[in-house]
Amino acid sequence: MKNKKGFLLLAAGIMAAAFLTGCSGQTGNENSGGSGDLLAQIQEKGEITIATEGTWAPWTYHDENGNLVGYDVEVMEKVAEKMGIKATFVEGEFDGLLAGLDSKRYDIIANGVNITEERAEKYDFSVPYAYNRTAVIVREDNEEIQSFEDLEGKETANTITSVYASLAESYGANVTGVDDLNQTFELLRSGRIDATLNEEVTYYDYLKEHPDAGIKIAALSEEAMEVVLPVRKGEESASLLAAINGALEELKESGELSQLSEKYFGTDISQNE
User: Fold this and answer.
1) How sure is the predictor about 21, in pLDDT bands with cuts at 50, 70 and 90?
2) Of 6, 66, 168, 182, which is the most buried if we count CB atoms within 10 A?
3) Which helix (H) or strand (E) holds 183?
4) Which among 52, 65, 200 is positioned nearest to 112, based on CA atoms?
């Protein structure tokens, strides 16, 4: 991505700082009685409460039978299994997920989350469990936008707290806030916006279900962004984060993350290649 590598490389620096400095701050779990170690509270309950959208395939969505499925769903089910607890999912619009984590309604978020500088001030992050490149998606007849720089002055749409909204704004785009991915593509296909930024794999998944969508990728970022699990910043979350990181490392070493990635994305995005 021209002139914006710093934005996409921010995640790596934040992750390194997190491992060097450790966790600090205030937090607790209102569902488990306030202060104390969050992992111990979760183990006592026997379940971890996970926030997710349920509308963002192939990360988290509903199948033809109405069951919540997706890469994030299966990853967290396997993580919870290794921790000896149950994974309980609570669905909501993306812009409300972080607020729910702040208010201690959830223990963690699993929703293809990327790291931003603003988020790093409030949350600690797991080790990456997926990597993805950012795509600028436009209508097939759009020849004006061929790079990230061409977004200046253009109309885009994303959930307003997403990293893609911030990235579009950094290139001078006017961002319209939406509730979910389907609404974004509806605005794009109807010509009410010029472009949207999202994951390359999400574009291909949408195109698989909507082969006549009439959209294309105009540009791709050069660097992959890290996908992580955010928790509230603080000592009370430290043991939970360590347990989650251990489970993710085991899933990576056993090849299970790669298998889930192939299942949902048709390629292995669990490795940064």
Assistant:
1) very low
2) 168
3) helix 181-189
4) 52
Residues in the chain: 273
Q: What's the Cα-to-Cα distance from 264 to each of 7, 123, 204, 227, 254, rounded to whole Å?
A: 27, 27, 11, 15, 18
Whether the domain at 5-130+226-265 and the domain at 134-220 fall into the same CATH topology: yes
Q: Which string of DSSP letters, residue by residue, matches 259-271? A: HHHHHHHSS--SS
Query: CB-hemisphere CA count at 13 Å for 225?
Result: 26
- Quote the tokens at residue 67: 């069951």
Q: Which DSSP category does 76 fall into?
A: H
pLDDT digits (tens, 9 = 90+) for 132-167: 899 999 999 999 999 999 999 999 999 888 889 999
The distance of Cα 185 from the centroid of its chain, to the nearest Å, equals 18
String of b and e for 215-235 (b: at least 16 CB within 10 Å)? beebbebebbbbbbbbbbbbe
Architecture of domain 5-130+226-265: 3-Layer(aba) Sandwich (3.40)
**Residues paired with residue 195 on neighbouring β-strands, in sequence order:** 156
> Which fold would CATH assign to domain 134-220?
D-Maltodextrin-Binding Protein; domain 2 (3.40.190)
Pairing assessment for the beta strands 47-52 and 86-91 based on DSSP bridges: parallel
